[in-house]
Structures are given as C-alpha cells and as structure tokens.
Write a structure and sequence with these properties.
Length: 496
C-alpha cells in the first residue's frame, strides 16, 4: 500500500484505517481457521498480520518524511522537533530523553489514544489546581519560606521559565513532591512537610527542577490512569504497557531538568539516597561513588532469590536506574550544551544508547528471540494472559489482539489451536508444569518482568477484578515470587 495523504493529520487517519482493516482481516481469518481446525492457516493469519503492519509502519514512516520535506519542517540531527518554547526558552528538543519523546510521538499518531484523550478532557473538565491547593494545603509565601522562593527564582532563571512559581506544603512525613497542572502564567509545586524539613537547599533545588521538568515536557498531556479508565472499552492491553513504559521514561527527562537547576551531581546523589533509604541524619557517611557502585550490577541483586525485589518495580524507574542515567547525562556533550563548565566526555548518541539499555531492564522481555526456553516462556505468557482475560468469563477481540502482540506468530498459532480443546483446569495444570520447568532457568528479573507485564495487561481497562488478581497471585506463587509484588504493581498502576 502507498499512502497519499498530504498532511500529517490526514496521514494518521489513513494509517489507522489501514491498521484496522488488517486487524479485521486477521480476526476473520483466525475465526475461519480455528473453526476448521487448520493450524497452518492460524499461523499464516498471524504472520500475515505482523508482516502487513510492519510494511504499513515502514510506508507510514516514509510518508511522514516526505510530508516533512515538503513542508520544510526543521529537523535537527534527524530527530523530530515536537517541543515548543511556550513555557521556556531552553532547547527542550535537545534536553528530552529520546525514550520519552519517541513514546509521545507514537501516542500522537495513535488514533485510539487521541480519541480517548478527547473523552478524558471532555468528561473531566479543567482541573482548578490553585483552588484545590488553597483548600487542601498551606501556601508558602516569600515571608514564610524565603529559601524556597530563592530556589524557585534560581530554577526559573536556569530553565528560562516564563511563568511564576507558587509553592504549597501539606503535612506528611513521607518525602514527596509534585507539580499540579499549571495555568498560563503560573506553576504550582506542592511539597510534603517531611521533604521540606529534611532536605538541603541543593537537594530541594533538584526536586523543584524535576517537578518543573514535568511541566516543560507537557507530561500532563497523557494522564495514564484517566486514559486507561476512559478507554476501557476501546484500548487494547498493549496500550497500557506502552503508557506505563512512557511514564517511566518521562522521569528521565524530568531528572535532566532537575540537574540543570541543581548543577551539583553529588547533591542529586544525596537526594536519591535519602529517597531510597529514608536516612537524613549524619549517622551514615554518604559517598556518591559508593552509592552508584552499590547498584551497578542490578541483575545480580535481582537474581538473589533471598532478596525481596518488589520495591524495584513501580510506575517510576527505580532509583539506581535514574541515578545511573543521570550520571551519563552529567558526562555528556548534551549537558555541556546547557552548562559551559561541563566538558562532555560522551556523545549524545552514545549516552542515549546506554540509557536505553539501562531502561530496558524495566521493559517487557524480548520474547521473539530464539533461545532454548523461548517457546515455553512465550506459551506461559500466552496462557497466563488468556487465564487473566478469561477470569471474567469473556475473552474479547482486543484481548486476543494483545496476546498476538506479545508472542511470536508460530507460538500464537499453536496456542490458539490447542486452547480450543482445553478446559480451564487443563490450562491451569499446563501453566503449573511450565512454571515448574522454567523456575530453574528463569532469572528473578525475567520472572518479575513476566508478572509485571501480565499485571499491566490485566489492568488495561482501568480496573481489575478479584478473580484476575487471584490468577496473578497463583502465577506468582508458582514462580516463587511474593504476591506482594502483584499488589505493588497494581497499586502503582492505580496511583499514576
């Protein structure tokens, strides 16, 4: 197929229509093949669908390039310029983490997500940040918190911010900070009393800069929980996995804004240390290099069967990954473009490649790679996902599509063929056998990734039934993972 649209908005519609047509054909072919018991046709339908979507994606990308060339759009280093200077005069397109930007571009081109966003904005209305904060917390004037306002003025200058900043505080021992949706000329940052009392000026500067970063990169444009709740009847489970992956990547961009304000990497390290340990006194001798080194070999820590790894997984990247990603940024030519006192030791490309590798520790397993146990792992993923989907008694087309997207065509075809003649109890028995075989060969990291991905799929419609949670609990038990991990993933999903 050759796309003919002349504008990006027309192209998005043309591309989505082509994808919908391909999906409808796959589901029709699957139904026909399953009814006739033809295994080859089931596999062929899955392969054809993936080939068609790959070709469409290639043609779509080519047409975008053609349209951009015709419109003479500015593209620096072949990267799209999607961030404006409406809120700041710094180069956000240079500062942003590529993983954050790439997901945003994909969301902009995803018709289902865009339609869901329209519904979210229509049904939610405009959130009155200042009104809510004035009712629920204490506004910190310059007279009440002069140091905090010094930090705000410094960050405004460092990030070339156009809006003013208003600070609020609420009672809470936990270390927490957030930035509420801004008005045109004002940003609202709220801090817990705990973080305000126990963090130094440099540490608070990083925290405040980080929260401003969320505003500069317009991270409020994609409220994950509201999107999944509003799109429960339209979005596929795979959308949930992508939204949560973006949510983690967005934190990396915000951290860079925090460092631009703080310009003290050791203070940033102390900030993460306090957030991780809760220790804010001098009872521990903090050393930045030792702190970074402690978490360098993350796989080894997670592969220790005696270690409870649930804290490492959440809607945010875990602290060791964030500090490592920021260490790379601190040594990069990219950072030197914003801070003339820095001599960039690594190129932007090298930095982004390495950060992507680090962040992949929290991404779904690459199940399509050939390997001794690959097919069994994929069948476990399929059967686990199917049992979760069927927990409410119905497996719909979007759930079948999601299952098709997380396993290879050959495995998908075999699974679709064999589940037709299996009872639920027989599927459960097979899952038990698979987990028993794989337990000795899977790393703890792989087990956690599988369970996290299945948890996210189960929450794709914005809610999760007790019956689905029970399936996840059983899967965790068979993989010898504490069920608290499932609670943590679901809790983080609900709290985004």
């Amino acid at each position: 197929m050759t796309y003919t649209s002349q504008t990006l908005s027309e192209l998005e519609k043309e591309h989505q229509n082509a994808l919908n047509t391909a999906q409808e054909k796959m589901l029709t072919d699957l139904n026909d093949a399953q009814a006739s018991g033809n295994l080859e046709k089931i596999q062929e339908a899955s392969i054809t669908f993936q080939n068609v979507t790959t070709e469409l994606a290639a043609e779509y990308t080519k047409r975008i390039e053609d349209i951009n060339a015709l419109n003479h759009k500015a593209i620096a280093d072949k990267e799209p310029q999607i961030y404006t200077n409406n809120r700041s005069n710094i180069d956000l397109n240079l500062l942003v983490y590529d993983g954050d930007r790439d997901y945003v571009i994909a969301f902009q081109q995803d018709e289902l997500i865009q339609k869901t966003l329209v519904k979210v904005n229509k049904n939610s209305g405009k959130f009155k940040s200042r009104k809510h904060l004035l009712k629920s917390s204490l506004r910190l004037t310059k007279a009440l918190a002069p140091m905090l306002h010094e930090i705000g003025d410094h960050c405004k200058k460092a990030l070339k911010l156009k809006a003013d900043i208003e600070f609020f505080v609420y009672q809470g021992d936990t270390f927490n900070a957030s930035c509420y949706p801004p008005d045109d000329n004002k940003l609202y940052i709220i801090l817990s009393s705990g973080i305000l009392e126990r963090f130094t000026k440099d540490e608070l500067t990083f925290v405040v800069g980080h929260e401003i970063g969320h505003v500069l990169f317009e991270h409020f444009d994609y409220p994950v929980r509201q999107i999944l709740s509003e799109g429960e009847n339209d979005l596929a489970p795979i959308h949930a996995m992508k939204l949560y992956a973006w949510n983690r990547n967005a934190e990396i961009s915000a951290d860079r804004a925090g460092l631009l304000c703080c310009q003290n990497f050791e203070a940033v390290g102390r900030t993460f240390f306090k957030l991780s340990s809760g220790v804010t006194t001098d009872s521990l001798d903090f050393q930045l290099n030792a702190y970074i080194e402690q978490f360098t070999d993350l796989e080894e820590v997670l592969n220790d069967s005696n270690h409870d790894p649930s804290d490492w997984y959440s809607s945010h990247p875990f602290s060791p990954l964030r500090i490592k990603a920021l260490e790379l940024f601190n040594k990069s030519e990219t950072y030197s473009a914003f801070n003339e006192t820095i001599t960039g030791e690594i190129t932007e490309e090298a930095m982004e490649v390495e950060i992507k590798r680090i962040m992949s520790l929290m991404e779904p397993e690459n199940l399509e790679e050939d390997g001794e146990h690959s097919e069994k792992i994929q069948r476990l993923m399929f059967l686990g996902g199917y049992l979760i989907s069927n927990a409410d008694g119905v497996v719909d087309d979007s759930e079948i599509q999601a299952l098709s997207s997380i396993v290879a065509p050959k495995v998908f075809a075999n699974c679709m063929m064999t589940i037709k003649g299996l009872t639920e109890q027989e599927m459960i028995s097979e899952v038990q056998e698979l987990t028993k075989e794989l337990d000795v060969v899977l790393s703890v990291m792989q087990k956690l990734n599988i369970l996290r991905d299945l948890s996210i799929i189960s929450y794709a419609d914005g809610e999760i039934d007790d019956s689905e949670v029970n399936v996840l609990y059983n899967l965790a038990r068979h993989l010898y993972i504490n069920t608290d991990f499932i609670d943590r993933v679901i809790s983080d999903a609900q709290g985004v």
